[in-house]
Amino acid sequence: MKFALTNDDGIDAPGLRTLETVCANIGSTVTVAPDLPQSGSGHRVTIREPLRFQERGENRYSVAGYPPDCARLALAHFASDADWLIAGINQGANLGVDTYMSGTAAAAREATIQGRPAIAISQYIGKDKELDWELTASRTAMILAEILSKPVPEKAFWNINIPNPDNDTVDLEVVYCRIDPSPHAITYDLEGDSFIYQDDYHSRARRAGRDIDVCMGGRISVTEVALDP
Asked: What is the architecture of the domain spanning 2-226?
């Protein structure tokens, strides 16, 4: 099995290195990722400027562009024979309406638009917690084994969010659920001529049984995100 890998945290992000390690144990990998962090860039693409790239090791390329640019280049040029495109592992969750803003989700969405199987993977960081990337790797390997054994969804990608519970359990409960459409807070503090956004991500609004509730409650949330909901 061959994987095209990308992310929105940039080519040097630890989550991408973790994903490369996990996928290398399953098959071969080709990484095409932004040269700089592009979190929150959504489905932005480059169409009027050259997409400059650099080789960053064997089958590793950085691109001066956005995650969907990287997905396009990976599937059209660097890894046109890839079986899957996987974006991640994002350092932070992409839950609920985050999927509309996330560059990680956008890369997977772009692959789906191109008719290719895709997965977005994100690691939630609990309040005042640190990440254990080795533990994330083990949990990612577990859930990928399950997802890759399933039929490829039609015109949809898998959005996976791994929780950050206070234990070292690898075999966490996996819940297939829907996106929570609850909005983020839109509270701003006015300081001079600037508005400063205020939000507590960890206590955001949520619906029972939807992806935010599932992941922040300590279970792995898996959502099938359709192009035509």
From this structure: 3-Layer(aba) Sandwich (3.40)
Residue with tokens 């009027």: 48
Q: Which helix (H) or strand (E) holds 160?
A: strand 156-162
- Mean pLDDT over all residues of the chain? 96
pTM for this prediction: 0.95
Q: Where are the domains of the chain?
A: 2-226
The torsion angles phi and psi of 101, rounded to 5 degrees, stand at -100, -25
213 closest CA partner among 186, 187, 179, 183: 179
> Distance (Å, rounded) from C-alpha 22 to C-alpha 14?
12
Give the model confidence (pLDDT) of 75-92 as tens digits.
999 999 999 999 999 999
State whether residue 23 is helix, strand or coil. helix
181, 223 Cβ separation under 8 angstroms: no
Q: Specify the pairing of strand 28-34 against strand 53-55.
A: unpaired
Q: How far is CA 62 from the centre of its chain?
A: 17
Query: DSSP character for 82?
Result: -
8 A C-beta contact, residue 3 and residue 85: yes
